[in-house]
Amino acid sequence: MTPINGSGSDFCAEGFPWARPRPDLMPPPYADLRKNAPFYPCTFNSGEKVWLATSYEAVVAVLSSRVLSSEHSHPDFPGVFALPQRRDSQGRPPKLSLSALDGAEHRFHRQRVAGEFRLSAIARETDWIKRMATNQLDRFIRAGSPNDFVKGFARPFVARIIAMVLGLTVEEAAYCAGLSDVILGAGHNPQLVPLASSRLRALVATAIEERRRRPRHDLLSRIVHRYEADEVFDQDQVLALAASLITAGLETTAHTISIGILMLVRAPDQLEELSADPSLMANAVEEILRLSSVADIVTARVAPHPCCVFGVELPAGAGIVASTAAANRDENIFTDPDEMRLDHGARRAHLAFGYGPHKCLGRHLARTMLSAAMEAFIDISGDFRLSEDPGWTASGGVMAGVSELMVEWSSLKS
C-alpha cells in the first residue's frame, strides 16, 4: 500500500477522528487518504488502532461485506460510541440497536419495523409533516430576530415528528431531545453519557409498559404488539430499538437540517434558484445529505475472524471505520464533489444513509423532514442572514453538526 507521507515506511495516521473545519467541510486528511490509501490503518485519540475506509469503493466494500460484523458487543469493536457497558442478568452485553446486530438476528428485528418506514407509508404522512414544519417556523419567527435556528427550529421540529410517530408527548419529545444531544452530540462530556442514556431508557421503558397494558394508535404500540404476537417479546431489545429510533433519528436529521439552512444562507444564488424553481428541491435535499454526512464514523465494523476486505488481509479482531463522509466527496463518483450542484439531477448514489443490509431504516422519513424544513424556510426566507459565526460540533465526535446557528432578519416574505 502506498504510504501517504512519502517516507517509504509504514504509516499510521494518528489523532482520528479528525476535526472538520466546518460541518459542511471534510477533515483535510480524507482527500489524501482517498487518493493514495483508501483503506489504511489509523489510530484513535484513545490509542486504539482501526482501519479507515475513505473511498467510495472501499466504503461500499466494507458495508456490504458478509465477513465483517456489526456486533457492538464484540470486545474488539471500534470505540466509536461512548456508551455505558451495561450487562444483563447473565452477564452479557446488551443489544444496542438494529445497527448492532448481524445476519438472521438483524433481519428478524428489522422486519418488525421496516414496514413503518417504507416510502409509501411515509408518503401518507407528508402533508402533516409539512404543516408541522410551517408551524414550528412560525414559532421561530414570532420569537423575534435574532434567533438560534438549531434550538428554535431544527431540534424541536424533528423531536416533535419523531415523538408523534412513536406516540410521545411534546414534553417527552423535548426531554428526549436534550438527552439524545448528550448521548450523540460531539460537544458534550462523555462522562455524562451513561446518565443521559439511563434516563432515556427509563422514559422509553415506562412508555413500553404503558403500551403493553393499554395499546394506542402509534408506532411504539405496533412494535410491542408484533413482538408479543410472535411470543418473542424482549423488553431490553424493544427498549433499545425504540431508544435508537429517537437518538439516531433526531440527531442526524436535526444536524442535517441546520447544515442545510447554513448552506443556503451562505449561498444566496442557490437559495434564489430554489425559490424560483421548487422542482429542484429533491436535488437540493440529496446534495445537503451528501455534503453534510453528519453520521460519519458510526458505520463501524469488526473482523470476527481473519479475512480479506478490499484486497487487504485483516487479522481477527481488526476494527474498521467506513467514512461515508469521505466517500461522498469521491472525485471518481461525483463531479465537483465539494460543491452543491442543483443542475446535475438528484445524486442519490451518496452514502449518507449507509449501504447494504444496515442502510438507514428511516431514510425516507429523514428526506421528508429535510424537504419540509427547506420548503418552509424558502417560503418565508426574505433576508435571512447570519448574525454571528455558527457554533460547530465538528470536533470529531459521533455526530458532526451545528450547535448554534444565530440568524437575523428585518423583512420576510408574506
What number of structural domains do the residues give? 1
> What is the distance, rounded to the nearest whole angstrom, between the alpha carbons of the first and last residues?
59 Å
- Reading the helices and strands in chain order gives EHEEHHHHEHHHHHHHEEEEHHEEEE
Low-pLDDT residue spans: 1-11, 83-87
Strand composition percent: 5-15%
- Percent helix, as a range, is 40-55%
CATH homolog superfamily? Cytochrome P450
Structural class: alpha+beta
The shape, in one word, is: globular
* Average predicted local confidence, pLDDT: 85
Q: What is the CATH topology assignment?
A: Cytochrome p450
Pfam families: p450
Family: Belongs to the cytochrome P450 family.
InterPro entries: Cyt_P450, Cyt_P450_B, Cyt_P450_CS, Cyt_P450_sf
GO molecular function, one term: oxidoreductase activity, acting on paired donors, with incorporation or reduction of molecular oxygen
Question: What would your notes on this structure say?
Answer:
With 414 residues, this protein is of the alpha+beta class. It has one domain: Cytochrome p450 (Orthogonal Bundle), CATH 1.10.630.10. It is 46% helix and 10% strand. It has 14 helices and twelve strands. It has helices spanning 29-36, 56-63, 103-114, 119-123, 126-142, 149-166, 170-184, 193-213, 219-229, 235-266, 268-276, 281-292, 324-327, 363-380, and strands at 13-16, 39-44, 49-53, 147-148, 300-302, 307-309, 312-314, 319-322, 385-386, 391-393, 401-404, 406-408. A five-stranded mixed beta sheet has the order 1-2-3-8-5. A three-stranded antiparallel beta sheet has the order 4-12-9. β1, α1 and β2 (39-44) form a beta-alpha-beta unit.
